Every structure is written in C-alpha cells, then in structure tokens.
Amino acid sequence: MPEVNTDVLVIGGGMAGLTAAARALHLGKSVIVAEKAATVGGSAQFAGYAWTTPAHAIMDEVNPRGDIELRRALVNGFGPGIAWIRSLGVECADAVTVLRYGSGHQFDTNSYIDECRRRIRAQGELLTETDTRALLTEDGSVVGARIRLPDGTQREIRSAATILATGGFQANPELVEKYIHPAASAMQLRSNPNSVGDGLRLANAVGAATSSARSGFYGHLIPTGVQFRDPSDFVALSLYYSEHALLFNLDNRRFTDETVGDHLTTMELLDQPESRGLLVADERVYRDWITGSYVEGADALDKFELAQRRGGRCGIAESLDDFAYLPTEWGYNGVEIAAQIRASNAAGPAVRPPRTYDARPLDHGPYYVIEVCPALTFPFYGIRIDRHGRVLAASGGTINGLFAAGADIGGLYDRAYAGGIAAALVFGLAAADRAAADRTGAPT
Ligand SMILES: Cc1cc2nc3c(=O)[nH]c(=O)nc-3n(C[C@H](O)[C@H](O)[C@H](O)COP(=O)(O)OP(=O)(O)OC[C@H]3O[C@@H](n4cnc5c(N)ncnc54)[C@H](O)[C@@H]3O)c2cc1C
Q1: What is the CA(242)–ligand 1 centre distance, in A?
Q2: Would residue 437 be called left, alpha or beta, if left means φ above 0 and alpha means ψ between -120 and 50 degrees?
Q3: For 274-312, how does the pLDDT look when each residue is reduced to its tens digit (9 = 90+)?
C-alpha cells in the first residue's frame, strides 16, 4: 500500500479541522487534511457567530457539570482564537451579547473556510471524498491512518500527530439513540449530513476515553411537520424566541423554565411525551421577538408566518377564550392551556416552573400558537481530551499522537451550551499548537 509522511494529519475539514490545519501550516508543519465530503466546511458553513461566556464565573454558572479543565481552556482561549481569525484577514465584528449569557463576534464563516482552504491547498494537501478506515498504531501510539481515496484505492498516511475533527455523530441514528436519548433519532438533523461518528469510532478502536452519555445535545425547537428543504432552513425554522413564550406538553402543562434558552428547552422537550409541545406567544412576544432579530446583526424574519406557510401546525387565537377551538386532533386541551396561561399571568414571578429571566405576562391577544419539536445539531457526548486537545486513554493518561477537537469531543458541555464554533476554534488551535510543540518532524 502506498505510504505518505506528514507532520500533521487532520481528519475532517470543518471548523475544527480547518483551524487546526491552517495553524499547523502557520507553524511550519507539513499538513494533510482528509475530508469525507466533496467540499470542506461542515456545519461551520451555516454558523454566524463565534461566541462563548466572557468569564469563568459565567461558564461555571451555566455549565457547572462540564469538564473544569476544558471550561477554563475554552474561556481562556477564546480571545486568542478571535485574534487568530482576524490574523487570517477575516473580519470579526465587535462583540455582542449571545443567548443572554454569552458574548461573541459575528463573522463570515465561509470567508474563514475559504481562507483556510486556500492555505491548505497552497502549502499542504487537501483530500476530499476521502474516508478514513483505521488509525495506525505502534507501541500504543497513533502514527497515522489508513485512508480510502475517491477512486477506491487505499493509502497509509504516517503522521506525527493525527487530529480527529469529524464533527460528532448526529447523523447516526443508532448512536444518537444510544448516547443522547432513545427518542433522539426521530429528530430532524440540523447539521451537515456527514458527521456519523467516525471520529468516535476511530478513537474507540485505539482505547480512547469517552464522556458521560445522556449529557445532552445542541439543537433548537422547530415547527412539527415541516421538513428542512435546504440548510438555510436550519436557522430560518429555528424558533429561538421560545425563551419569551410558554411551552406546554401533551398533558397541557408547562414542564421547564423556557426563559433559560431555546437550546435548553429543546433538550427538555425531547424527554416529554411524543417529544412535542405547544408554544404560545402573545402580541408583545410576536412583535418584539418572533419578528425581531434574535442576536444583534442576525436577519429578522417572521418565523410564525414562515411556519404557517410551510404547513406547520399553527394558529392565531384572538383571545384566551379562543383556545377552546384548538384542533382536537393535535392532542391538547385548549381550555386547560388557556387556564394555565391565566394562572401563569396571575402568578407573575411566583410562577412554577419559574420563568427566571422573563416573567412578564402573556396577556395581549392575538396569541400565536405553534406546535414544536426538537431538532439536533450536535451531541455533547464524545471523545475526552485535555486542554491541549490530546485524546485521553480509557486506561489513563493520553494517547500519544492523537488529538481531537470540535463536536467530536465530549465532556465540555453537560446539559448546557456556550458555543460550538468557539469549541472547534479553541481546541483546533490547541491541538495544532501542541502537535507542533511535541514533534519537530514526520516519523520515518
Ligand atoms: C445551522 C447552524 C448554525 C450554527 N450556528 C452557530 C453559531 O452561530 N455559533 C456557534 O458557535 N455554533 C454554531 N453552530 C454549530 C457549529 O457550526 C459547530 O459547532 C461547528 O461547526 C463544529 O465544528 P466541527 O469542525 O467539529 O464540525 P463541522 O464544522 O461540522 O465539520 C466536520 C467535518 O468533518 C467531516 N467528516 C465527517 N466524517 C468524516 C470522516 N470520516 N473523514 C473525514 N471527514 C469527515 C464533515 O464532512 C465536516 O466537513 C451552528 C450549526 C448549525 C448547523
């Protein structure tokens, strides 16, 4: 089998992989990127903000069960990560608030992807439509991988460092049922379609440690019964405004504090009967949040109108009395839900479950009602790493020569979320820096 040597082999060409590759080239290393799809970019093509919590204390508060070493590394590495993006000539806007507790920069992820690709093509090697069959090991160290090229031929790439960056396993129904929730495979995929857990499989085969299952996932609520037609729907149909609305399950009860964030409510809804619920907004929420911009700089779009046009289960009730006419086939009791809304309005800040960050009443008709379900972007379960991106061994210590970054990693978030681009950026850079520092040349 033909054999090739390189300093750094990167498996996966999305945010984490491209970042690691461009950084390793910048540090004077030879680099090969193996990407499974026909083009690089992964889910990063659809993202718009690099963000995380601006301070450790906030990270500790919103993500208390996340791995402490990785939490620290993410916050510490974020500023240098933004500086790195800018150093490539890609503009990052001034910081804005993201998801209430975060801070981040809007940037054109596609310009960043293009610039990384240009550098890899110019100074390294970019292989697309290339699959990785297995990692190569010697004396417990990873020394490269066996890949399959688009023409079916296989090649052994021997590398001093191998970086796994395949973007998670959200597109693998068996794995999402096993590691997220038994009902998780019913969720629509809100991500690139190629992240099927190859990084996890490769890491497991060489004895990597993995994080705790059932730690959740990143995703958003979407209207039930509306299929994504193309990736622009991933954002267009995400109902970020749910944190200002009320969400009822099939028992006609609220079950979570919606105000902590749509991405957290999404995880909670997965666990409710049939993983669906009725999202209710009033005239104020419609005006300020449904038709408004969710993050400063993001496009404003009337998501209710879009869901209605696309055949979602939507209705407008002029008053709470009109909830009596909710279609019975949806499975909810409209009279009971109206009573719950009245009770919630009367309770104000004493309402249960609490509405910690926005307990204002929903007392102005018309009411905008949509049935919603969760959609999946990437899981929080995955390969355990240290702050340098080195893969931890299940038996203790690290696996020599093996790194991971981005949505392939686990343990950073546990039923909490503070940025996917940031995690890919920070640990992609950390892995490349450490790989460059560990070795000076390719193995022979
Ligand atoms: C619609 C949408 C909007 C988002 N918005 C934001 C945002 O504004 N801010 C934010 O922080 N996060 C956002 N995210 C999340 C963010 O995009 C991801 O967290 C981030 O892209 C993860 O980087 P990654 O490199 O791990 O995965 P990806 O960027 O998805 O890249 C993984 C790559 O690996 C490739 N691959 C898979 N298997 C293999 C294999 N066996 N061999 C080789 N290659 C393989 C895939 O084809 C893909 O190119 C958004 C995601 C979506 C879908």
Answers
A1: 24
A2: alpha
A3: 999 999 999 999 999 998 777 777 777 899 999 999 999
